[in-house]
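Review this:
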Amino acid sequence: MTEAGETVLEVREELQPQSSATPYYYIQAFLDNFLPLLFVLLVWEGVARLEIIHPALFPPVTEIFAKMWELTLEGIFLRDVFHSLARLLSSVFFAIVVGTLCGLLMGTNRWVEKIIIPPLNFFLAIPGIAIFPIVILWFGLTEKAIVFTLAFEASLSIMLNTWGGVKSVDVSLVNAGRALGAKGHRLFYKILIPAALPAIITGYRQGFSRAWRILVAGEMLASIGTGIGFRIFEARAFLASDVMYAGVIVIGVLGFLLERVALRSLEIFTVQRWGMVREL
């Protein structure tokens, strides 16, 4: 390679946005998110110690974490977290596969778009937990009922965002790809999918959030014996507010970590690294 060619490559490497997924990034992100939460927990502890609200309804944070540690040592929380995550991840996996494929077909085929858009908008208007009793009629109070409901609801958001991402790809970008010889499947994989990826990842985030919220409610309704939602609902019957609050905190922490560590890292290594979105 000539000296001029090497210089061009060096300039391109310097101009290319660098990934922020470094140990320093995660440490800084942890501090930025942990310190405000720590402040809220300290205020919670102070208000609870004043007993403005009855301790049975609003226990101190220290008692909640002590109960959480006790349930963890007994293996109860670990088992609940494992079962909840297994249901969530398996359903989201199916939702990503089905939702992405259907969204891509909708964005590239006018007839498929016309057929799917009306029922898609119809089901998006229905709260996910509303169809759960109907799914129970099909599958009974089983794991299949929960996983099917989560996968179905998450796929709707993924499908919608994938379709919108493909439809919003700049026509000039497509024409440029065709001018450079990208046709058929090469145009699909080289132009459409990369250009639509920010919207697709947004759909993954929304689908995950939708599934996570329905999961907890589904575990409460199904009463299948395991899961964080089941544990919270069971604690309600015994007025164990510390267990209920502990379960809610675990739900928040797990959802936050999965969204920020898994989905945010995916965004950093792809669209942010390519310069398609600004660094957050």
Observations:
- Residues 33 and 196 are 29 Å apart (CA to CA).
- The chain has eleven helices and no strands.
